[in-house]
């Protein structure tokens, strides 16, 4: 950092919400052309700080300056005018609009009262060429994949040539190739003096792309250092406030007989003749690139999508699963890839979300027993250490890690025999990940059968007993996990 004023200086930022003090006097500096990693556990205050910088929240105290000049943002438009672009973890696209229409929404260029759609289309195509990707410019964004929508969000931020870009979990839905291209774009931005605040729970990305790290804990800035002065263990200790002995906790237990058996599962080209078994006490990982058919396989078994063919058996008994209700009744639970869209009713309370698939067990004579409902909720809040002020707190107000714990709690209350974990730690901090890993191990030790989908190969190698690799809807190989197994072995099968 030079002696000159930083590009961005935030000083003494305070922000409180009812019952929660989110930021406690946070200071942060950012230099031109710097990639600053903003890290911390879920609920540490990262999102709140980003929203203050992006004009979505007004700070209760403190202030910020751009190039040494005080700035005050009353809206996201003010922040954008000052040269700050925020790529939020949750998409802000209008589903019915095309990529060019979304990219230039609010900054359309018009001639004689008419928007110049041709120019917008040319400019959007140029941005996507710089990103090295191909996007259907005429399709509504609702028809694009999650990864493609993420790329539209990135293009939207680049469209008005910002001086500061905030990227909140930008790679959550990207393939390794797309991540690599994004990092190339970030390095290009650095060379042009554009600064990036990068938020991610994927620590390997931090060591690849960041120049410096700032860590928030309980709303405070607890330290920042150049990335080359830290190793993975030191960074984790800074984030959680203690040493984490085993990032992927070891599990000792006996793997028993086959519990779930799937044969010849098919649906169009998404899933083609997929067969596998998972045994009692076993964690089976489905690995592969985005679009390989992993999530689609889980959804077919769970009855969320209708299968064209295939057989499913649990404990030797053939199941006729036509909808999720059938799967739940059989003892199968699914932690969905998108917990906000499919795993939770965000406008309902923690208590109601946990009770939702268990109403038959929590009711008497057709009426929900409120006492039993509260008791069940309290038990899981304590067991999973869900950070929530009270049971009536709405699910949308929880951090990502606590939302995931609520989704898990409803299936624990159901006492499912088979659990599908689809990207169980996406967008979750390292401490919350560790808690979920411990719980997965505990469930396996109790004889449950677990199938995990993960795009993070270190997680796959750290947690799975066996790895089933998919490519283009087909199984391309199976690996018995062990000390000698490498990420390269899995990737060779994933791109087969």
Radius of gyration: 24 Å
CATH top-level class of the largest domain: Alpha Beta
The end-to-end distance, rounded to whole angstroms, is 46 Å
CATH superfamily of the largest domain: P-loop containing nucleotide triphosphate hydrolases
The share of residues in extended strands comes to: 25-35%
Helix proportion: 25-40%
**CATH fold group of the largest domain:** Rossmann fold
Tally of separate helices: 17
For the secondary structure, the number of strands is 24
CATH architecture of the largest domain: 3-Layer(aba) Sandwich
Q: Specify the overall morphology.
A: globular
Number of domains: 2
Query: What is the strand arrangement across the widest sheet?
Result: 6-9-10-3-11-12
Structural class: alpha/beta
Work out the oligomeric state of the chains in this entry. Answer: single chain
Major β-sheet profile: 6 strands, mixed
Low-confidence stretches: none
Mean pLDDT equals: 89
